[in-house]
Amino acid sequence: MDRPGVFRWFRYAAGGRLPERYHDWLLHDTTSKHWKARHVLRSSVGIAPLCLAWLLLPAPLPLRLAIVLMAALVAYFYSCAYMEESIDHRLSRNGFPPGTGKRIRREKAAEADAEATARYIATYRQQPGD
């Protein structure tokens, strides 16, 4: 799997498109086990410069820190509230059919649930005398 470099990743995190050779990585980034954490990290690329700018405002430090905290909380709240929609839009912008991310994550969850159910049955539903 070909990974984008640092500058290309920052461009991608800011909303840019990736070349087709990164499509496998893009699917991994948006559907892997840690896709939510990856989304929050990508969101930080847009939130961090704004927070830095607010820290540089000419005001008392406690007020600037309060502004940064409130703005970051609101930004992360909305980023996480619309996480699935944002990721599906990111995938469709890079050439995937709409709903691809949600479908792949649902399939992976179904596989994990089936494996967990099989382990449960094997452990707790054994017949007496086995």
Automatic annotation (TrEMBL):
The keyword Transmembrane is annotated on this UniProt entry: yes
TM ranges: 40-57, 63-83
Keyword Membrane: yes
Keywords, ordered alphabetically: Membrane, Transmembrane, Transmembrane helix
Protein name according to UniProt: DUF5313 domain-containing protein
Organism of provenance: Amycolatopsis panacis
